[in-house]
C-alpha cells in the first residue's frame, strides 16, 4: 500500500503476513463454493485462488503519524504465542513485523499510542513480547487504548472461567500484561485520540463482531479514512453482504453494522482500510447494479 495522506496526517501499512490462503468456509461458514466461483473473475486471482477457490487475506497494522505522534492500529498475531488451535500463528518466530516497522524509521520505543479495534488474538499479538520468561509491553512508551465495553466483556469471561483460555489465551498473554504495566487506558465510543471531527483521529462503535468492536477514523484535507477492524475480512463480502464471519459474536448485529458502514461509505470520499485485505489494501466502495464493488487504489 502506498502512503496515504489526509492533510498533515499520513497512514502507512505495517505488514506481518502479506498472503494467507484460507478456505472460504473458514471465513464464512456455510458459504457455497458456487458463490465464490461466481465472483472469482471480478475479484481476481490475488483474492480468490484460481484452482482451490480459497480466499486470500493478510495480517497487518496501520501506522498513523499525526501531530508528531506515532499511532499503531492493531498489532496482528505476535511472536512466541501459544495458539494450538490456530497452527498458522502458533509459536511464530518472525522478524517481519518489526522489520516492516523499521522500514518507516521507527522502533517499538517510538510508538506513542496503540489502538486495538478489538481483542481477538490476531489483533493484539504484538501488544506484548517475551522477556526473560514473562510477557512485557512491546511498546513501552505507548498508551494502549482498549474499548471499555470490549475489555470488560473479555475480563468477565476471564474471571468467571479462569481455566478457559479466553480468545485462545491472548487476553492473558497480550492484554492483561499491558494493564498490569499501567500502560492501558479504557476509552468509550467516540473517544478522540487527537483533533476534532473536521481534522483528527477518533474511534467509533462498530459492535457485532465483538461486543465493543471499534473502527478508527482519520479525517483531514477534506477526506476521510476508516480502519474497519474486522467489520470486513475479505472483499467478497461487498458482493455478498449477507455473509456472516466465523468469529462474529452476534452475527445479526455484525451484519447490520457492515451494511450500515457500507451504506455510509458507498460513492463517498472515504478510504476503507480493512485489517485483512492484502496489497494494495486501500480503496473505495462504489455502487453496482448487484449491490457494491470495492475498488483498490491503483487498479
From TrEMBL:
SUPFAM superfamilies registered for this protein in UniProt: Metallo-hydrolase/oxidoreductase (SSF56281)
Protein name: Beta-lactamase
Entry's family note: Belongs to the metallo-beta-lactamase superfamily.
Native source organism of the sequence: Cupriavidus taiwanensis
GO molecular function terms attached to this record: hydrolase activity; metal ion binding
Top-level taxon of the source organism: Bacteria
Classification via InterPro entries: MBL_superfamily_lactonases, Metallo-B-lactamas, RibonucZ/Hydroxyglut_hydro
Keywords: Hydrolase, Metal-binding, Plasmid, Zinc
Stretches assigned to the Metallo-beta-lactamase domain: 58-276
Keyword Glycoprotein: no
Cited Pfam families: Lactamase_B (PF00753)
Alphabetical list of SMART domains matching this protein: Lactamase_B
